[in-house]
Amino acid sequence: MGERKKERWEQSTLQKLHLVGLSKISKLGPKTSRALISYCGGAQQVFRASREQLLSVPGVGGKIATNLLSQRSLSAAEEEMQFADRHKIEVISYLDAEYPQTLKNCHDAPLVIYKRGESNLNSQPAVSIVGTRKPSSEGRDIARKFATTFSHNGFNVVSGLAFGIDGEAHGAAMRAGGQTTAVLGHGLDQIYPRSHTGLARKILESGGALLTEFPSGIGPEAYNFPARNRIISGMSYATIVIEAREKGGAQITARFAFDQNREVYAVPGALGSTTSVGCNRLIRDQVAKLVTDPEEILDDLAMIVKLKERYKGPEGVDPPLDEADKGLITVLKAGAAKAEEVAEKAHMTLDETYRRLLDMELNGLVRKGAGNNYKSAV
Question: Is-contact 220 192, C-beta < 8 A?
Answer without folding.
Answer: yes
